Amino acid sequence: MRHLLRSPAGIAGTTLVALSVLLAVVGPPIWGAQAERIDPAAILQGASAAHPLGTDSLGRDILARVLVAGRLSLTLALLATLAGAVVGTVLGALPSVLPRRAARLVTGTVNALVAFPGLLLAMFTAVVTGLGARGAVLGIGAAIAPGFARLTQTLAASVAGADYVSAARMLGVPRRRVVAVHVLPNIAEPLILNLTQALGGALLGLAGMSFLGLGVQPPSFDWGRLLFDGFSRIYATPVVALGPAAAVALAGIGFNLLGDCLARAAARTDARPGPAVPLPPEADIEPLGPPDPGAVLEVRDLTVRFPGGVTPVRGLSLTLAPGEITGLVGESGSGKSLTAAAIGGLVPYPGEVSAARLRLCGADLGELGDRERRRLLGTSLAMVFQDPMAALNPALRIGGQLAEVAVVHQGASRAEAQARAVDRLGHVRIPEPAARARQHPHELSGGMRQRAVIAMGLMGTPRLIVADEPTTALDVTVQRHILGLLHEVTAETGAATLFISHDIAVVAELCHRVVVMYAGRVVEELPVDRLPSAAHPYTRALVASLPDLETDRSLPLAGIPGRQPSPAEVGPGCAFADRCPLARDRCAERPPLMPYGPEGRGHRVACWEAS
User: Fold this and answer.
1) CA dihedral 3, 348, 161, 158 (to 10 degrees)
2) Do the beta carbons of residue 230 and residue 62 sit within 8 Å?
3) Cα–Cα distance for residue pair 484/608, rounded to 1 Å
């Protein structure tokens, strides 16, 4: 609702739909008797004070009939939409679970129906099933079904290859259960959103069927039937057709606007930090204190939540200073990438981000308007993702993608932006930058693509660089070059860098400070030179799992027994207790992040048994 009321289209669509529904509810009780009253003395009158839209051939008030017809019009449209949606959804989901030959047959049927004109399909169905409201509903439902089937088929194809669907098939789960339990629930949201837009189309379609004489028949009447009755007088008294025409148009526009705005609201990424999410009573909440004026990034009590109680990031606090490279390490699933996404405003829907404080370059992101926030993130934050092929649009040339940053955020002309793009590509030591700028991403090697992503971040003047496992997919030689380049860029620009990795050896080589995450929380924060004497058992286990030249190759590689709990399984105590050799009864209570060591030196640890 918040997103709907932000835009003029959302406000207009919500208002029109609300008025249409209200009219359908109160219209017949209030104006029903007036709409049916026959007045021989007022036959075929034009607009007057007594009859603003005139009267029909029996002297009945047309305005009252328009107000009453809203209930039947909306009811028939809803029935037609539901019928088309149910049939189309079933047809579209079947190919994902049927054998190949049957799936091809269903797909071919859907393709043929989609290619057939919808109005002709609706008219043919209405004639076959019989004239009247039932035939019109079945006809419009038949016209809607192919579109739903195509959408469902496309969405289901992305789910059908998932491991959980394959596992269900292997276990012999019945096909109807695979569709109902494993496929449809995961594609329900876009189908529901499309339902609203289809309702507007069904309303217009049913009005058209009644106008052609194939829909509602006398003595019943809907907006289309009223339009048909008034059309013969449109040249003499055009006002008699304006009422039903305006009702059909406004209601149809309202449903289409509402559906479009709902789809955009669901698809948009909204990571604007809200108020701090209340944590469990055992959680340690640090005193907020005044903002750090020298920090590039200051995060306090950052929490990321998804529906169902899934909380991948829990009360994280982090401060980055200019010129500092901070490593964020932990196993896969510990919340590292979602932390970076929350900072950059990239947490996908339906995730919710909250923070007691989230400041970038001295500005509170939660207090900025959308335009100011986008401008700050677009010019002061550089994101380097793990997969550069996914970060770059394969359909666009490298130079054009880099130039877009300068055009959108800096107001540069296309020529100036293109020249800066070539300069930035050369700056990250890509050979022949002018030629590379004219190439597409697939024409570059993995290392050059990653350099191009770094160059994209340098199109502005970044104050913060977030590198999310940027060397994972690269070979060792290219990895070293990328790490060296990140170090040089940080030193040259004075930016703060957040380097995310699961490889603690890489972090030890590149970073000044290390933040260790486990199950969504920070368990240790320490200078990189203190990694060999880490205090938390988890950090020690990560360091011990690194082989070196002195490792005994006759023994199995060191590892950490057990597994990290999923975000929905994290309990109130220490999340590492089940895997920790030092666990005691006290670990049932979660330890706060406490200063460690006599000399301090920015070392903090969350462990009762740290020594």
Assistant:
1) 40
2) yes
3) 38
Q: What are the φ and ψ backbone dihedral angles of 606, each rounded to 5 degrees?
A: -110, 80
Which residue in 593, 607, 566 sits closest to 315, CA to CA?
593
The answer for 313, left when phi > 0, alpha when psi is -120 to 50, beta otherwise, is beta
Rounded to whole angstroms, what are the CA distances from 46 to 19, 65, 225, 293? Answer: 26, 15, 19, 74
List of long-range contacts for 166-170, beta carbons under 8 Å, 24+ apart:
169/97
Q: Give the model confidence (pLDDT) of 3-15 as tens digits.
A: 566 678 778 888 8
Q: Which of 602, 577, 482, 457 is nearest to 503 (CA)?
A: 482
Domain with CATH 3.40.50.300 in the chain: 297-605
CB 609 within 8 A of CB 537: yes
What are the start and end residues of each CATH 1.10.3720.10 domain in the chain?
A: 4-267
How far is C-alpha 106 from the geometric centre of its chain's CA atoms? 30
Q: Over pLDDT 70: what percentage of the chain?
A: 90
Structure tokens at 325: 């490279």
Render pLDDT for 193-250 as a digit per residue (tens, 0 to 9).
788 878 888 998 898 888 888 888 888 889 999 988 888 888 888 888 888 899 989 9
pLDDT in tens, 302-346: 999 888 778 899 989 999 999 999 999 988 888 898 998 888 888
- Check: pTM over 0.85? Answer yes or no: no
CATH fold for domain 297-605: Rossmann fold (3.40.50)
Superfamily of domain 4-267: MetI-like (1.10.3720.10)
Q: Give CA–CA dist 282/93, Å, rounded.
A: 46
Q: Are 465 and 382 in contact (CB under 8 A)?
A: yes
Q: What is the DSSP string of 540-600?
A: HHHHHT---TTS-TTSPPP---S-PPPTTT--SS-TTGGG-TT--GGGGSPPP-EE-STT-
pLDDT at position 286 is 58
Structure tokens at 110: 């859907």
> Quick one: average pLDDT of 557-579?
85
pLDDT higher than 90, residue 394: no
**Per the structure block, which two tokens stand in for 98?**
């049927």
